[in-house]
Amino acid sequence: MANKDILEDFIIEDEFGFYCAYGDFYIDPKYPVTTAVISHAHGDHAVPGHAYIFATAPTAAFMQYRFVQQPIKSYHIKQFKEKFYIGEVEIEFIPAGHILGSAQIVMTYRGVRYLYTGDYKLQEDRTCEPIGYMQADVLITETTFANPEIVHPDPVEEIKKLNTTSLNIMLGCYSLGKAQRLTYLINIHCPDKKVYTHHSITPIHRLYDSLGFVKLNYEIYNRKILKEGQHKVYLVPPIAFNSYFRAKNIVRVFASGWERLQHANDMSLYISDHIDWRELNIYISKVQPREIWTVHGDGSLLKEHYADKIIVRNIFKKKRITV
Predict the structure, then answer these.
(1) Transmembrane stretches, by residue range (predicted)?
(2) Are the beta carbons of 58 and 100 closer than 8 angstroms?
(3) Entry pTM
(4) Residues 202 and 219 in one domain
(5) Are residues 287 and 144 in the same domain?
(6) pLDDT tens readout for residues 262-319
(7) Cβ count within 10 A of residue 318
(8) Co-location of 254 and 294 in the same domain
(9) Residue 317 per-residue DSSP state
(10) What is the CATH number of the domain that holds 47?
């Protein structure tokens, strides 16, 4: 790729989200805008109300389920590696490996390639597309766990911890992506366990069954389930998990890469859908960027690590002025 000039303001962060003035669109805006390019369907990246939405088919399906009043005609579905233009900016999606349909957003303008990762992971996850790689001049990366002291353990060894108890387990997790990954891991590596899903998780499991790559084995929870027998795992969203403090004879577990979410539980379960420090540096070695712009976290340790090698800075924040 030609060593052309990088536009320092190609993507800036304003009060609505990440904005590209050169194509007049937003990436993962926090509030309704005219044109939105959505990396994935988690609530901190996808909101309703946009006039035009560019996304992968699974992302659009999850958004349609959650945002029933969003007009169907507003969605513009794009396949992975399908090139399209918004203004003069060429865009394509490549897999992010975060959840089903999650995309990195590759933008090329005046010969310079800008790669926005969204949330991503390198760990194997059979419930979603494996991460894709592409060389870019500018890498715009999340830094959720950009700390050398944070190392995510093997998810298979983590999920096998559930085999150490015959008691029923209440397993807290996020409804979209994490719950489906956990279900598959339990199905494969905890064969004596039976998975039951909270009513808010079940519809998303069904979408994964229709759109995804693996069959999920589970049943819908009812109030008698945890009172009868053992070796059962009840998947619940965080709000339900936090309300069940009085449950007896149940092992409380929450699946997360955050240490602060493990302290009050009966068993730790470090399963994250984000990259850790080692994976971040592996990824950077594959992208070979000239500059790294950081979002969603603290990039100071990354900047220190690549001092005198790669320019690392926070994405510029500006207040957008509209007339």
Answers:
(1) none
(2) yes
(3) 0.95
(4) yes
(5) yes
(6) 988 999 999 999 999 999 999 999 999 999 999 999 999 999 999 999 999 999 998 7
(7) 13
(8) no
(9) B
(10) 3.60.15.10
